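Suppose a colleague, Dr. K., hands you the sequence of a protein chain of 120 amino acids and asks what its three-dimensional shape might be. Before reaching for any lab equipment, you can write down a predicted structure in token form. Begin with the sequence itself:
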Amino acid sequence: QVQLVESGGGLVQPGGSLRLACVASGFTLRDYAIGWFRQAPGKEREGVLCISSRGESRFYIDSVKGRFTISRDGAKGTVYLQMNSLKPEDTAVYYCAAQRLVCGSLFHSWGRGTQVTVSS
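The predicted structure, expressed as tokens, is then:
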């Protein structure tokens, strides 16, 4: 059974950092792209950042460029989202999802999400 589980969220002050983890099970991570998405209260879900099966990154929004990075550890079956210089507008539930090989628009196997709150 394909499953993704997010962790690492929490409460952080503006300017702080968090590292989210997305642990994959039930499939071979190296064959999949993993995307991070977020949904803020009252807003639609949006793509944030994705890493392809070949390790190439793709940003879906400009507001996180220079602050967020994505990486994968195949041995641990985990994809990380490193978030630095966090802003209140980054507050959202963050989800990860999988797609075969490339960062496209056909993601599946969504995790349940992890809450990130940026507030002083």
